[in-house]
Amino acid sequence: MCVALYPQLSQNVYQGWGYICEIISGSCLRYGWVPIQGNMTQSDKRRSVIAHIRRSRRPLLVSHSNPDPDSLGSVIGLADVFTALGAAPVVAVHKPDTVDDVLAKIPGLSQIVPLTKNLLESPPDARGFDAVFALDTATPELLGVDDEIREALLAVRPVINIDHHVTNSFYGNVNYVVDAAAAAEVVWTLVADLRVSLSVEGAIALQAGLVADTLGFQTRDTRPRTLRAAAALLDIGGETSGVARQVLSSRTYEASRLLGAALAAAEHTADGRLIWTTVTAEMASDVGLAVGEAQGIPHALQDIADVVIAAVFYESDPGNTRVSLRSHGPRIDHVAAEFGGGGHALAAGASVEGGVRKVSEQVVSRLKEVLLIQG
Ligand SMILES: [Mn+2]
């Protein structure tokens, strides 16, 4: 009987301790202190994030530059949570006006304002922001803003960092980094714990993030809990077709031609397990695009039979190469990190100084080693 009671007893003690921590952290916040995280467990962090969400009246929600459906969906979804709780969230990303027409279909996008110095110095509410929530952003550098804006942003306390990238640098006062398929999945689990009702638009935005980051629920990190989140969002009106499908797979005619050119230029090892290609400024301008407008090339390479690792090298600026890496098996995030980037175990990238030819030679030789070692 003792054995039967013990887990329940310890759980109660543990929960009690969690509530005490929450009260202490709440008092600290009221006096402008940010408690040190120390050895907080993942469930302590989760409770802390939930307490911060409940407490914040004027949160600033931010995400990485060149936003994708998951970064946009997760900030819009979390903004919806704050609205449901009666708070007045502000959502900001670097240069939101550069979001393309396909992503612009995500509802709630019009509320996103540019992340500028002016916003931080003269927030819409004279009292200023009482918290920053950063979503889907592994490092503060990925916000894309200059040093001054970044420092001003991180000076707002507390900074709550909610993410699903293994390479997250834990730059927040609370760092809730979860092994999840999408930041949108993490936000959904918070919604469930907060017991708030999400609007249909909020559900559509989160679903778009889930569908896009999982490539339509096909990635290896798509788990039963990911599908349960999707099912719950579907119940609210967050469809997996419609906007979610469009942001995943709509490719313009020009981007399709660029994809064709990139596939035609692909090279591979004799066994076909490693494949790579380059997208030069000339290839892009031949179809009337900029290199940054290329779409879906890493995914297309990964779809080729026998391919284990795929790499794409984009001539993003003269003398600078953006690298996209994908893998079906061996981890490649450490290779991205060696070149100054990061990401997920099986999908990572970096921006590397040097021309495409030189950078591709270096990265490809490193990837050959990875395949030899990890098979
Ligand atoms: Mn993501």
What's the short story on this structure?
The protein is an alpha/beta fold and 375 residues long.
Mind sketching the topology for me?
Layout: H1 2-30, H2 42-55, E1 59-63, H3 69-84, E2 90-93, E3 112-114, H4 117-121, E4 131-135, H5 147-155, E5 159-163, E6 174-177, H6 183-194, H7 200-213, H8 224-236, H9 242-249, H10 253-264, E7 267-268, E8 274-279, H11 281-286, H12 297-302, E9 309-317, E10 320-327, H13 333-338, E11 342-343, E12 347-353, H14 356-374
Parallel strand pairs: 1-2, 1-4, 2-3, 4-5, 5-6, 8-9
Antiparallel strand pairs: 7-8, 9-10, 10-12, 11-12
The structure holds manganese (II) ion.
Manganese (II) ion binds next to loops.
Q: What is the first-to-last residue Cα distance?
A: 50 Å
Number of strands: 12
* Relative helix content: 40-55%
CATH H level, superfamily name of the largest domain: inorganic pyrophosphatase (n-terminal core)
Task: Kindly provide the radius of gyration, computed on alpha-carbon positions and rounded to a whole number of angstroms.
Answer: 22 Å
| CATH fold call of the largest domain | inorganic pyrophosphatase (n-terminal core)
Ions, cofactors, ligands: which are bound?
A: manganese (II) ion
Compute the number of structural domains.
2
CATH class group of the largest domain: Alpha Beta
Low-pLDDT segments, ≥5 res: 1-36
Give the amount of beta strand, in percent: 15-25%
Count, helices: 14
Structural class: alpha/beta
Report the CATH architecture of the largest domain.
Alpha-Beta Complex
Shape: globular
Q: Order of helices and strands, N to C?
A: HHEHEEHEHEEHHHHHEEHHEEHEEH
Mind describing the biggest β-sheet?
Answer: 6 strands, parallel
